[in-house]
């Protein structure tokens, strides 16, 4: 957020993990992040890594250790986000030595303005985003209860 014009991460910098995420997908992602010369100061993020299966998580940890051991350059930037309610699953446990408790450094309103700047589609573009509030092309719908039609 230090530069409002800097682009948000692209699809190759974010891996949204589910129980169906394969070991090959995680391997390709980690290689892009950890092989010297590939990172280009990008921030690579694994979202919901706690949802990976045991086998995929184990293979990911072994690959991470192997790539890190042979990587003479420690300039990679890898962020792994997990659900705090699943902190004892494989990935959060395996990477607990790197754990950092994150508290947002900016007020919520400022974060929202930053995201609106990047996710708003021009009204004249004829995009499907025009049906959403403020021409936003993304949104989050959440519910504490499952199956309520969201």
UniProtKB/TrEMBL annotation:
Alphabetical UniProt keywords: Ligase
GO molecular function: ATP hydrolysis activity; ligase activity; ubiquitin-protein transferase activity
InterPro entries: RNF213 (IPR031248)
GO BP of this protein: negative regulation of non-canonical Wnt signaling pathway; sprouting angiogenesis; ubiquitin-dependent protein catabolic process
GO cellular component: cytosol; membrane; nucleolus
PANTHER family: E3 UBIQUITIN-PROTEIN LIGASE RNF213 (PTHR22605:SF16), RZ-TYPE DOMAIN-CONTAINING PROTEIN (PTHR22605)
Protein name: RN213 ligase
Species annotation: Rostratula benghalensis
Phylogenetic classification of the source organism: Eukaryota, Metazoa, Chordata, Craniata, Vertebrata
Gene name of the record: Rnf213_2
